[in-house]
Amino acid sequence: MATPLRRLSFGVEIEVVGEPWKIREGWTPQQYYDRLQKALENRGLKAVVDNSTVNQSRPDHYDKWFITTDASLHAIEPQGK
Length: 81
Prior knowledge:
The protein is α+β, with helices and mostly antiparallel strands. It has a domain at 29-71. The protein is 17% helix and 7% strand. It has one helix spanning 29-42; strands at residues 47-49, 65-67. A two-stranded parallel ribbon has the order 1-2. The N and C termini lie far apart (64 Å). The relative contact order is 0.17.
């Protein structure tokens, strides 16, 4: 006797480390995150910036781009081009 098919679903998370194409004097990391969110939304994509300042459990956001910070990235100096 065949086993009935069950519906299976899964999520795929893609992590990207980006760098601004233009460094703006005096901008905070939060300003870059907000700008990225706006740029994605201007292209018809859903996006949200993670504004939490502590590492805590958050709900999953699989229906939009979820822009987060990574403390280790703040220590990296931008590469000259």
